[in-house]
Amino acid sequence: xxxxxxxxxxxxxxxxxxxxxxxxxxxxxxxxxxxxxxxxxxxxxxxxxxxxxxxxxxxxxxxxxxxxxxxxxxxxxxxxxxxxxxxxxxxxxxxxxxxxxxxxxxxxxxxxxxxxxxxxxxxxxxxxxxxxxxxxxxxxxxxxxxxxxxxxxxxxxxxxxxxxxxxxxxxxxxxxxxxxxxxxxxxxxxxxxxxxxxxxxxxxxxxxxxxxxxxxxxxxxxxxxxxxxxxxxxxxxxxxxxxxxxxxxxxxxxxxxxxxxxxxxxxxxxxxxxxxxxxxxxxxxxxxxxxxxxxxxxxxxxxxxxxxxxxxxxxxxxxxxxxxxxxxxxxxxxxxxxxxxxxxxxxxxxxxxxxxxxxxxxxxxxxxxxxxxxxxxxxxxxxxxxxxxxxxxxxxxxxxxxxxxxxxxxxxxxxxxxxxxxxxxxxxxxxxxxxxxxxxxxxxxxxxxxxxxxxxxxxxxxxxxxxxxxxxxxxxxxxxxxxxxxxxxxxxxxxxxxxxxxxxxxxxxxxxxxxxxxxxxxxxxxxxxxxxxxxxxxxxxxxxxxxxxxxxxxxxxxxxxxxxxxxxxxxxxxxxxxxxxxxxxxxxxxxxxxxxxxxxxxxxxxxxxxxxxxxxxxxxxxxxxxxxxxxxxxxxxxxxxxxxxxxxxxxxxxxxxxxxxxxxxxxxxxxxxxxxxxxxxxxxxxxxxxxxxxxxxxxxxxxxxxxxxxxxxxxxxxxxxxxxxxxxxxxxxxxxxxxxxxxxxxxxxxxxxxxxxxxxxxxxxxxxxxxxxxxxxxxxxxxxxxxxxxxxxxxxxxxxxxxxxxxxxxxxxxxxxxxxxxxxxxxxxxxxxxxxxxxxxxxxxxxxxxxxxxxxxxxxxxxxxxxxxxxxxxxxxxxxxxxxxxxxxxxxxxxxxxxxxxxxxxxxxxxxxxxxxxxxxxxxxxxxxxxxxxxxxxxxxxxxxxxxxxxxxxxxxxxxxxxxxxxxxxxxxxxxxxxxxxxxxxxxxxxxxxxxxxxxxxxxxxxxxxxxxxxxxxxxxxxxxxxxxxxxxxxxxxxxxxxxxxxxxxxxxxxxxxxxxxxxxxxxxxxxxxxxxxxxxxxxxxxxxxxxxxxxxxxxxxxxxxxxxxxxxxxxxxxxxxxxxxxxxxxxxxxxxxxxxxxxxxxxxxxxxxxxxxxxxxxxxxxxxxxxxxxxxxxxxxxxxxxxxxxxxxxxxxxxxxxxxxxxxxxxxxxxxxxxxxxxxxxxxxxxxxxxxxxxxxxxxxxxxxxxxxxxxxxxxxxxxxxxxxxxxxxxxxxxxxxxxxxxxxxxxxxxxxxxxxxxxxxxxxxxxxxxxxxxxxxxxxxxxxxxxxxxxxxxxxxxxxxxxxxxxxxxxxxxxx
Length: 1362
Prior knowledge:
The protein is mostly beta strands and 1362 residues long.
C-alpha cells in the first residue's frame, strides 16, 4: 500500500529576492513524514517532474486526513522563506479507483491564508492494501433521521398453547432522564389489565434512579396475553400520588415476547403526553421487561449504567411521537501538554521497515467526541504535543436526548497497530444546560477541558487498568493534557457534514480565553505513615498539571518533592517516613487561566452542602432508633430549627461576583449564575413552607435540597487541573491521591474558600494497579493551598509560627573498584551516575557549579548532612526482635565436618559476629537462650546442606557430595526501656552504602555493598526581608559563563509550637462483618494506625460480631502547630479489621478512617461516647465498628486515670463502655425453607446457632429436612448481658450448620438481625410496678422476644440460591 505524489510544476510564484529570482522547492508532509523535491535555481515557473512516494504499511489512511504542501525559497544563508502553501483532503484520493491518478491544480496561500497568484500542479495516486476497496462516505442512518429503530423479531407465537397458560411478566424500572418540569417529584406507575404497581417518589429531580422490580401474574389464553397492554406512566407526585402526568409509554406484551429471550433489556422508552395533538418527548424511562411462560428462563434484568445503553439505537417510542433533529457544534481549537505515546525504539523500527522516520515529539494526536452513540473526530496532527486543530465537529442527535454526557477522547494515531487513547474527559449535559421555562440549551466555553488517564510516563506495555483509566471507565491517576473547546446547540436540522474548518479570525477571537495568570501551590507535609513498601527510599511529589512533575523536563523546575527517605517500621505492621523536626515544604509555580470566579462559586455552594450534611446527620442521629419521650421533643425541635434556619441564611447569601478586569465570562457562566440564584431562591421558599412538626418530612426536604445543591455545585468549565500527590521511589510512581483544585483554592471570603485550603487533612493514597480498590498505598497528613502568586503572602500570615529553611543539595557518588578490595572510586563500569548528582542520579550537580537565583544567597559553606532515616537500625520500632546468625561448616566429599573459615555469617553468607559475641543493645533484655531453628527445611540438628553456597539450593538431607552445611541460631530479645538514639552512631564521614544505587541505603558498610553516597548541603537565605521568590539553582557549564540546567533546593518548615499527645483508642466491638473463612465465620482482629505507630487488638475466634473491649494507648505522639489547629485538624486514625488465618496472609475485612476528639485535661475531662463507624472494602460498605478515640494533650498536664486492665490489656473504661443489663432472649425457631445446595450437596440435617453478645444457643438437629422441615423443639432461651442504650445493641447472628457424614459440619448459611431493640419488651412484673407506682427509676432486667418472621439466609456457595 502506497501513496505517490508527482510534483509537476509551479507558476507565477512570488519573487522574494532583491537580486535575481527565487530558488523554489516543494515540501510535502503526510502522516508526519516529510519529503521534498530538488531546488530549482532562479525561476518563478519551476518544473520538477519528481515523484515522491510514501509506504503506508497495512493500515489504510482515513478519508479525513490531509496532505500539507509548502513551496519555499531556498536560502544558502538564513532561513528558507515561504512562497505559498496548500492543503489537499484525502477523501477523493481514497475513494477513487485503486491506482487512478488524480490531477490537482492548486492555488497557493500565504502565511496569513490569503490567496496568492501562484499555482502548483500535482498528480496523486493511491494503491490500497489487498482486500480493501474504495467505499463512499457514510451518511446519517435511519435511527438519526427518525422513526422507530428496527428490533429483531422472533415470531414464535404459533408454538404457543391454545389452552389457558400461566405467564409472569417481570418489569424492572431502572431510571428516568430529561423529565420535563422543574422541582418535580417523579414517580413511575406500571399497569397491566387494571393492576398497577408504583415506585417510590423521588424529591426534586429530573433524573430519578428507581431500580424497582414488579411482577404481574396472568392466566389466560396466550393469544389474549400477547394482546394485553403494558403502560408506563411517570407522574409528578407532590404529596398526592400521581397527581400530574409527565409522560407515558404503552406497548403490547406480544411486542416484548417477540424479542430475543422474550425480553427487552435496559431499553429507553420515549415518554410522551397522549393528550397532545402532536405528542412530543416529555422524558425517557429505562426499563427491563421479561415475559415468562412455562419452561422459560428469565434473562439477567439487573439495572446497569453503561455508555452502550445511551445510544439512539436503544430507543423505543410510539408511532406519532415527534423527536426534533438537533446538532451539537463542538469547536476544537487546540490541545496542549500531551504525553509521549511512542518509544524511540519503535520510531527506529519504523525507519528500518521503511514506514517512517524517527520523530522528536512521539505523539500523533487527534480528538474524538462522542454522544448518544455518534462519534466525530478531528484531523490528525503528526508529531505534535501541542496541536492546533482549528476544526468544528458536528454531531447530529434527536432532541431532547436521553444521553447525559459528551465524551471527549484524545487519541494517538498509530501506523502499525490500533490507535492508543491518551485520556478522556466527560462533560455532563446536566451541567451545561437546564430544562424548563428558564432553561437553556447545552452550551460550553470556550474553556479548557483536562483529560486524565494512566501514569503520564511512557510504558511499553499498558495494563488493563491503564487502558480503563485512559478510556475514562476508572478514575485517572495522572494528568495527560487538556483541550480548548466550545460548544453550542442548534435545534431543527441535522449537520450537512461532520467537520468544517475554523478560519483564522474565529481562532484569534478566543485568544482572550487563553491568557494565563501566575498561581502558586503550597504544601506542608507533616507525616507519612501506613506504608507497605519498605525496600527502597520514598519521597512525595506534588504537582498540578505538568507543573511540579519532576519527570517532565520541558517545565520550569519547582521544589515540588520531598527528599528521599528510608521507611521505618512502626512496631506492628506498617512503615512510616521519619521526618523529625523539620517538615518538608514544597511549592509549585504554575500558569493557568484565572477562573477563580467559577471555583469560588463552587466552593460557596459546597460550603452550603457541608452545612446541610452536618445538620442532617445530627437530626438523623437523634431520630435513629429512639423511643421518644416528652422531654426529648425539645432537642429534636431545636435541631430542626437550626437546620432550616442555617439553610435559609445560606440561600440568602450573595454568590461570588465576577471581576471584569481579571475574569473572562462565557455564556455558560451567565446562565449558571442565573440558574444558581433562581434555584437557591426557590429552595428558600420551599424550606420556609416545611412542616416542622414532622421530623421525617424535614429529613426528606433536606435530602431533596442536598440533591439540588450537588447539581448546582458542578462546574464543567474548570480550566485548572486537579492536584496530585504521588508517593514515589526514584522515578517509579507507587500511590497517589487526586485533589480537585477548587477544594484547596484560597479566597479572602471564607465561604468562597476551598474546604481543604491551607488546612491539615489526612489523605489516603491509592495504588493505580490495585484492581480490588481495597488497598491503601499510604496515608499523608498535609496542608495544601492554591492561590494567585500575589496571595502567597496570605499563606505566610496565617502560618506565622513557621520558619522556612532552604538547602541546596547534591549527592557525592562512589563505587567500589574491585569487590572486596575496599577501594572506592568515582569512575568505572559500575559508576552509572555523575560524581555529584541529585538523589535520583539524573542531573549532574558539581558543588562548584551550583549558583543561586535572584533574591537568595548562600549562608556558610557546604557541609555533610546524612539522611536521618539511616540512623534507624533493623530493630527500630519493634518491641520484639530476633537475633540470628548462621554457623557454617565444611568438608571434603565424604570427610568429617570442620568449622569453615567463615564460621559465623549472616543469611547471605557475609561474615558476622559469633553468637556469643553479639552484644545486647541498651534498653533490651534477652527472652531465652540461643537455640538452633528447627522450623525450616532442616534435619533434626538444624543443619541444611549444599554443594556450593550461593550457587545451589540447600537440602535437609545429607549426601556424600555435600561439602558445605549451615544452621541458623536464633535468640529473641524484647524492649524493656526506650533509649534515645545518639548522633554518634552515624559514621563521621557521612557515607551511605547500598548494593545498587536504586536500592535502599544504610549507614554501616556491608560486604555486599558496591555503591555509596553522601549528602552535601548548603543553606540558602533570602537577601531581602519580606516574601522571597521561589528559590532555584543554576548549574553552570565548565566554561562558567553558560547555564546548562536548572534545579531546585529542598525546603522545610519548622514550627515554633510542638505538643505531645496521648491517643486512647477504645475499640469495643464490631457487628455484621463479612465472612472470611469457608465456614461463614471470621477470626477478626482490629489494627489501629495513627501517625508513626500501629497497634492491634486481640483476636476473637469464629464470630461475625466480635467484642474486643480493649483500649489501645499511643503514648508520646508529637504534633506540630497550635492546640487549636490540632483540635479542628487532627490526624485521622486508620482502623482495619482482618480475619486471621492459620495459613497464609490475613484476609482484609474492612477499613474506616476516624477523627479523634482532642481533650485538654485541665479544662475538664468528659469521656467521649462510643460511636458506630461503617467499615468499607473499596466502594462496598459492610459491617460496623463501635469505638471512640480521645487525643489527650500531655505537655505536663495530669492525664485521666488509665483504663482498667484485663491481664496485660487495657479495657474500655467504665465511663465510655455501655451500661449492661441482664437480658433474656427468647427465639421461636420453627424451621427452614428453600435451602440452597452447598458444595453440590443438599442440606438434609440442619441445626441453627444463635449468637448475641458472646452467648450462644443451638437448636436441635433436624432429622430430615425432606420429611419435616420444622424443628421438634422450636423454643430456645438464653441469658446475656446487653447494653441498656439501644444505639449500642449488638445484632443477633444466625448460622445454619448441616450435619453430614464423617463428622463434617459446614456452615451453609448465615444471617444477621440488627436493631434488636425493636423486639425488646419489659418484663411483666416491671410493667405492673411502673403502672401502679409510676416509678421513674431504671429497670433491672429486660426481655427480647422475636415475632414470627422469615429470616433470609445468605448461602455460602457459588450457586444461585433458589
